[in-house]
Amino acid sequence: MHLLASFVFLPLTFAAADSNSWSEILGTIGVNPSTLGIEILEGDSPRSTSLGFRATAKRITVRSVEDLRNPKLKIVWEKSLDLPIYEMPADARIFTRERWQQAPLVAGLQRDGHAILWLATSPGSPRYARFPYLLQALADLGLEPPFRSARLWAFFDSSYRLRADPDYLARHWRAAGIQAIHAAAWHHWEPDPQSDEYLRRLVEACHRQAIQVYAWLEFPHVSERFWESHPEWREKTALGQDAHLDWRKLINLANPQAAATVADGLRALITRFDWDGVNLAELYFESLEGAANPARFTPMNDDVRAEFKRIAGVDPMEAFASKPFLDFRADLARRLQEEWIGRIKAICKTKPNLDLVLTHVDDRYDQTMRDKIGADAAGLLPLLRQHDFTFLIEDPATVWHLGPQRYRDISGKYSLLTDFPEKLAIDINIAERYQDVYPLKQQTGTELFALVHTASASFPRVALYFENSIAREDWPLLAASSAFVERAERTGSKLAIESRRGVGVRWKGPAQVDNRPWPVANDTIVWLPPGAHVIEPAASPPVLRILDFTGDLRSAKALADGVELAYQSNARAMAVLERRVSRVEIDGESVEPRWMGNVLFLPRGQHLVTLTSRDTQTSQ
Amino acid sequence: MGRLIAALLVINGIVGQAADSAFPVLEKAYEALRAHDYDRAIVAFTQAIAITPARASIHKDLAYTLLKTGETEAARDHFGEAARLDPADDHVALEYAFLCHETKQTAVARRIFDRVRKRGNTTAAAAFENIDRPLRDGIARWTQAVAIDPSNFSGHEELARLADQRDEFALAAEHYEKAWRLRPDRRALLLDLGRMWQALNRPADAMAALIAASRGAEPRTAEDARALLPARYPYVHEFELALALDPSNALLRRELAYLNLQMEHRREAEGLFERVVEESPDDLLSAAQLGFLRLSRGDENGAMPLLNRVLAGRDDELSDRVRAVLKMPPVLHKQSETSRTLPGEAKMLGEKSLEKGYLKDALKYLRVAHENDPVDFNVMLKLGWAHNLLKEDEEALRWFNLARRSPDRSTAGEANRAFHNLRPALERIRTSIWFYPMYSTRWHDVFTYAQSKTELRLSGVPLRPYVSVRFIADVRGAVGLGASLGPQFLSERSVILALGIATQPWKGIIGWFEAGEALRYRGAPNDLGRIVPDYRGGVAYAKGIVAGRAFAETNLDGIYVSRFANDMLLYSQNRTGFTFAPAQLFWNWNLTVDSRGEYWANFVETGPGVKLRLHNIVFSVSALRGLYLVTGSPRGPMYYDLRIGIWYALTR
Fold first, then answer.
1. Which of A34, A63, B81, B412 has minimal CB crowding within 10 Å?
2. Residue A293 — φ and ψ, nearest 5°?
3. CA–CA separation, B474 vs B493, rounded Å?
């Protein structure tokens, strides 16, 4: 019998620990406390003393702590705590200690096959208030999450990874549950042999790992060289200066000549590389300070000023903070977005498998965004009736300090605004926050997992900004945090799982799902479609397995000579097969598909695919 | 990839390093690299660095491997280390600089490119220009923006950061300061300002900025400031400079007020608290403290409005404190739903633990109680007693000293007494005098023993030298019982001048030795002379246990005295009983033995006793029944003894 290791029923014991807080912590990576199998101790107790964690008479006021897996990380508690200094057993592994005096605060023990996690005090409230890396510590002690997802998107900026091996990155991303990367395309706006070659290698490496690659655009920034070459089209601030704000160098897309030139460049960019989609991101104006800071307030180029003067009879330079101009500005942003969606959709006619994503800051949860940057989601969402795209909601910097609950609220607000809730997605910004947030400036560890987990439960799709800002320590548990399972019950050797968007279940050996041999699985994971399913051990594996798949699986069936599966995918889908098959039928018609090694490319949309392996070929 | 490995092999000269201790590990690293197994290679290179940390080439190879995995910051750090180990290697310096630039350490990158370009390196020159030009342009743009709108916070901040990255410290300092003045609550800017002033060699100003950032700022800024501040506590004048820079920093002012209070500069403290209360009317703690200070100097009119404000405020614990001081009945408060250990609860638990002798628990709870209410002088007093009982006298002294400032007379009085009793023990020179006249029915005589001892406490040395004068007398001079010996400590008429040395107490044990001369002021027939050498020494152990009213105590003394035929005596005096302050009722259990087998020095005795303590004087009466342990006693095998004594001790 093949059982999931984490379902070997080792009871979780919380000696002197608050089990509620641990349920919340473990829940962020889908672990049920009753199956943890690791003893957790908090503070001074007879049990911890018997193991050698002894409180001395010395005490310490703890405010800054150091996690030894990343000692450079500045972990600061909002409220300091007076704690005893503990002696550690000789065989303890210290995970976390006080920064200034190095007093141990979190440690682990493994004795006689039994693992113990000890903490000098409780995790605090919120649950990541004191020790961000408790889940990583548990993983070091043997915890293996039972579920994983492979549906995450991540933004990627090559300027941070110029010398990284694309194959290494792609393997690393897919292992963490990344389904698509949205690669900064402005670095490749102008053809350049060296940088083009890098991007091509990256796209290929991603496709080999079944990762889709989107062209991420940040209009009205076009490219560095474009800005240098066209000073006449530079956007202006309300102080009349060129709008070089932070890293973005903004172009006046309201100018018809500029827009036409940019449109030509966009077509060239999209056709030059093997993209799976385009992400039109953050096409509105600056800045989060709104009209309060004229040095950052845009657009104030001649075209916009002339148009507004024509309508309102006043130069907006004199009245940029007025309601009429702010309304005009929001409408202009909407018009520009609509115009560029149209242009991209026109390009899609020649590349029909391209997906389109519109990344747009939230202005419903934080309602100041419309006046600050011209963002108006309510004006844009009706475009979903005309165009097929994913509306990726970016939570603005003004709310990054709030907890994961905000994703439920944002989801609730946006679901009311559209008839296409399945087209909504959420972008989690993993970045240093300007607010006073504790214990970390940037989300990592349990806080990040809580954000990803709640977002995954609230939205059909979750994107992470960006892959380079995700801490190295978080990658191994990211796929688990993005999995959302409504129900998991074991009865004998059967495991009943219910999930809204499908899930990967850790499993060893052949499996059958709903009493049928199951073909979508690899050596450690069984991939399930949405809904309720029952997994149980099977006598033998199917003749062909789909090891990995980027689309939304609807159903799958092991055939005597192959596999049949139904899927839906907004972008081109990729299936990683155990081996190549000789015959591929899509919706009943035999096709000559595109292969890359054992990766089979399938068209976007909803399709039924039959793969038969009567006459199989091995990969090259 | 092949090129990378080849380069690494050449750079490292690995072929010729067979004898190298890191060689086997490095071999594994390169083998992993050939297999594109970067993770394994990183582990092996890291192990090699642990074996030979000073070899730049391994850091460089590890850095290149880390770059393959996208670990840019880690790669940067290893290039940095390689550059430090081999400063002549411009190639490594440039790699380091490029990665500094990629990882937002622009100022460092710019400095390195600048240094290398001055050696004629064209790559460095181009890279320098690529960094410097946008900084120059940005500085020009934002200079113009803040000139148009001087109240533009983000303009000043941006300008300061650009200038900071371009090492224009004066410009950066100017605009960090302007940005901070526009938003004084953003004290993180004081950290940047402090850094700039350090770079401009303005240490006093830098210190002031960092102190201001470390107090009253959000915890993260405070911790960052702590990392930049020296480990010592700031001086008063440094606090004052910080306050001059950041006069709206109420917490900084309050801390200075408490510092003055600690230094017994009450007037200055009061002035500072007045300013805090004036500028931060919601700071009830300062209002209460100021009220207490005024109350303690009899300014009831000045104190009451402040204390009434605290009473009307929302801080229930503080308000209860004020009620206690004003002898007002306490008010019942609704229990907080969020706090599981209420401040009052902590105090109660602390007091109970202290009462029951669970001293560590007492300390724990009392510390919590003190954190919750830093002006609860009763808690300070209890903390003093808890430390005292734990033999942590320096800490106890600190708490007693604080508690002495209580506006409550009884608390202040008790703390004052404890402070004065304890302080001499911690003074460098300590003089103690004790005097013990005692009447014994067994001997029908009055004996008097006294000693004056002045000892020197040497820091870090566990021994204390001292000068001693002992006085021994009996009124009748009648207890000359042996052929050549009198019962030591009973029948003598001497003044003994001696130099001695004693150990510091260790778990209740003290060792001591004295060498001196005994001057007999009244001769006896069997005297060997008026001035006789006197050597004596011994070990003493004392231990007491208190549980509520019950107590048990033991005193063990082993004494050697040269003048009495080199006799050695062991006294064990034990008492168990109950305390009904200021009286104690107890039962005696005593044993005395000696090495010479003298009858008067070998006996057991038991019986009830009572003590009454009045300040430094203890009256004691014991009724004892004794049994001699050696035969041949001239007084029969058993005796009764009613012992009445007065003990007086004084320490200065």
1. A34
2. -125, 95
3. 7
Give the pLDDT confidence of A480-532 residue by residue, as tens digits. Answer: 999 999 999 999 999 999 999 999 999 999 999 999 999 999 999 999 999 99
B155 lies within 8 A of chain A by CB? yes
CA B315 from centroid of its chain's CA atoms: 29
What's the token pair of residue A305?
Answer: 């000023």
Nearest to A103 by CA among A84, A79, A117: A84
- How many whole angstroms separate alpha carbon B60 and alpha carbon A385? 56
Instruction: Please give, rounded to a whole number of angstroms, the shortest distance from the CA of A56 to a CA of chain B.
Output: 9
> Secondary structure of A507-563 in the HEC alphabet?
CCCCEEECCEECCEECCCEEEECCEEEEEEECCCCCCCCEEEECCEEEEEEECCCEE
CB of B102 less than 8 A from some CB of A: yes
Give A565: exposed, middle or buried? Use CB within 10 Å, 0-12, 13-18, 19+: buried
User: How wide is the angle at C-alpha A162 spanned by C-alphas A158 and A166, nearest 5°?
Assistant: 80
**DSSP symbol at B233:** P
In chain B, what residues touch A242 (CB-CB under 8 Å)? 141
Backbone angles phi, psi at B493, to 5 degrees: -140, 80
Residue B525, pLDDT > 60, answer: no
Q: B355: which 2 tokens? A: 């009462």
Q: How far apart are the C-alpha atoms of B366 and B372, rounded to whole Å?
A: 10
Q: Where are the alpha helices (DSSP H) in B166-283?
A: 169-182, 188-199, 203-214, 219-228, 236-245, 250-262, 266-279
| Tens-place pLDDT, residues B32-84 | 999 999 999 999 999 999 999 999 999 999 999 999 999 999 999 999 999 99
In three-state secondary structure terms, B436 is: strand
CA torsion angle A166 A168 A169 A173 (round to 10): 140
- Taking the C-alpha atoms of residue B208 and residue B197, their distance in angstroms, rounded to an integer, is 10
What is the longest distance spanned by two Cα atoms in chain A? 83
Residues 346-365 of B with CB under 8 A from A: 360, 363-364
Please name which of A202, A102, A127 lies closest in space to residue A159, comparing C-alpha atoms: A202
Report the amino acid identity of residue A310. Answer: R
Distance from CA of B140 to the nearest CA of A (A): 11
ipTM score: 0.89
> Does B566 touch chain A if contact means CB atoms closer than 8 Å?
no
Question: What pLDDT is stored for residue B529 in this prediction?
Answer: 59
Least confidently predicted of A433-437, A504-508, A565-569, B12-16 = B12-16
pLDDT digits (tens, 9 = 90+) for B384-438: 988 888 878 888 888 888 888 777 778 888 888 888 888 777 777 888 888 889 8
One-character DSSP codes across B310-344: HHHSS-HHHHHHHHHHTTPPP---PPPSS-SS-HH
Cβ–Cβ pairs < 8 A, chains A and B: 84
Minimal C-alpha gap between A165 and chain B (Å): 5
Q: Which two tokens stand for residue A63?
A: 């405010």
The verdict on a CB contact (< 8 Å) between A84 and B364 is: yes
Q: A17 pLDDT band (50/70/90 cuts)? A: low
CA pair distance A198, A223, nearest whole angstrom:
17
Determine the average pLDDT of the residues in B376-380: 85
First-to-last C-alpha distance (Å) of chain A: 35
The model's pTM = 0.73
**Minimum Cα–Cα distance from A241: chain B residue:** B141
